[in-house]
Amino acid sequence: MGGGEAGEETARRTAPDGLRTGAVFLGLRRGGLIFALGAGVSAYEGIHTLINPHPTESPLIAFAVLGIAFLLEGWSWLTAWKAFNKHRGDLSVLEGIRQTKDTTSLVVLLEDSAAVTGVVLAAAGIGLELLTDNPVWDGVASLGIAGLLATVAVVLLREAKDLLIGESADPKLARAIRREVEAETGVIAVSDVFTVHLGPEQVFCVVTVDFDDAMPTGELEKLVGRIEKKMIERNDFITRAYVHPLDEGDTLHQPQPQQQPA
């Protein structure tokens, strides 16, 4: 929530694009600190139980607490899952996680998934302890939870890192921009479309365009301004757009056709 609010703050003179990347930094910090800390604590408890096993006190109360936690976390997970499915479309779950740029929603989904799975592991550990009369299973469950939290932390850190170092937008967006610009009168060709995410739903775009050399300077300036305005108006994610006229010494880069599988 804090990351989302920071990303919506008004732009400042020292930060002309606002604080949109705040969501990325907070996602990185939250994933790194909370999940890594949780993994460390769970690993310590698991190792301690394996070295000094002791039976669980009041297993019925423990099951009751875990049951309530499962219901609460399950409801939260279901809400996050519906939101995730809405944005991933036809992509698989793994592809949806890899391609999402909304680290805030991803943190919520993975956090709730880890919580629900952790509750199940804890209940399984206590259940096996009661069935086998061996408290070691509680320690094994704690180690399993530690591994789960560590995995979630790694996934979140990787996703946040990709946005932090500058991840390009969906190739479909770049292709759509290329088609829109090439359809403008006075445009000979589009040399390059550069996109980079400033935040989950904010994209910075630079288009290098080869214009008709016979076009007067005044008309060229108006055309550049019109193209930049249309790029922002027609694409919800684009918050900054620039058109760079191709210089005489620049090389015209044409998009490479995709090879068909044999």
Strand content: 5-15%
Q: State the shape.
A: rod-shaped
Structural class: mainly alpha
State the CATH architecture of the largest domain. Up-down Bundle
The third-level CATH topology of the largest domain is Alpha-lytic protease prodomain-like
As for the number of domains, it is: 2
Give the proportion of residues in helices: 55-70%
Determine the mean pLDDT.
80
Number of DSSP helical runs: 8
In the predicted model, the low-confidence regions spanning at least 5 consecutive residues are 1-14, 256-262
In the CATH hierarchy, what is the class of the largest domain? Answer: Mainly Alpha
Order of helices and strands: HHHHHHHEEHE
How many strands appear in the DSSP assignment? Answer: 3
Main sheet overview: 3 strands, mixed
Rg, rounded, reads: 26 Å
Walkthrough of the structure:
- The protein is mainly alpha-helical and 262 residues long.
- The protein has helices at 2-7, 22-51, 59-88, 93-99, 103-132, 136-164, 171-182, 217-234, and strands at 187-199, 202-211, 238-245.
- Helix 5 runs antiparallel to helix 6.
- The longest helix is centred in the first third of the chain and has 30 residues, at 22-51.
Could you write a compact summary of the structure shown?
The chain has 262 residues and is mainly alpha-helical. The protein has helices spanning 2-7, 22-51, 59-88, 93-99, 103-132, 136-164, 171-182, 217-234, and strands at 187-199, 202-211, 238-245.
Task: Name some characteristics of this structure.
Alpha-lytic protease prodomain-like; rod-shaped; 262 residues; 12% strand; Alpha-Beta Plaits; mainly alpha; three-stranded mixed sheet; 3 strands; disordered N terminus; 62% helix
